[in-house]
Amino acid sequence: MESDKKNRAYQKGETRNVVYGDSPVLHSNRKENISQRFIDPVVSNPIFGDSKGMGGENSESVTLAQQVLTPIISIGRISDEYLDAINKYRAHLSLPQLTFSSDLSKRAIERANYLSKRDKVESTSRSDLIYKDQPIGETVISCRSPVNDGSSVGKLIYRQLVNDLKNGNPPKKRYAPILNQDCKEVGFGLVRNDISQKDYIVIYYYPVRKAEESASETFYFF
């Protein structure tokens, strides 16, 4: 009976958002490769995986009744894994190491929660991307739940940058901040839309120069 109620709520388009924190909440135990489940924030197509989309499975066929639920992993561990991954990339490129900002992370969680409620990916207007009177970078990603590994988020962003450069394309602005030379702090937010079974990730970088200035001096290291 309970699963029938949840399925009816899903069909009506109702949403329930779960902010990833230290308290236990519903979480799927699927162990799919995260790189096969990410959705491109612009074209809403998988960056990796087959033509069916997220992990080779038609997302419309998945219902809440099919989920197996287990306790959630703390966002603290996931954000630490992400920070460690991108700092390894930056060290390889002789770029300064980043530190974790609780203030930026709080802001990132608030933004991720807003996007999750709307079930829509959109970038913040440039005029609003200000922190301590300095411009900040923003990465927004929507992907199929669950996100269990922060390092995989970093790998996805890095690989996308490499692919852009190998194909002769300009690096996407939403991914470029991890290589900004002036960046010192990072904030990480992760929120789940439990009905649509999508996780929303927002990452802030402080401070950043204009993307074209950073790109011209940084990307030749690849």
Automatic annotation (TrEMBL):
Ranges for domain SCP: 83-205
Transmembrane segments: none
Domain of life (superkingdom): Eukaryota
One Pfam match: CAP
Coiled coil regions in record: none
InterPro entries: CAP_dom (IPR014044), CAP_sf (IPR035940)
Protein name: SCP domain-containing protein
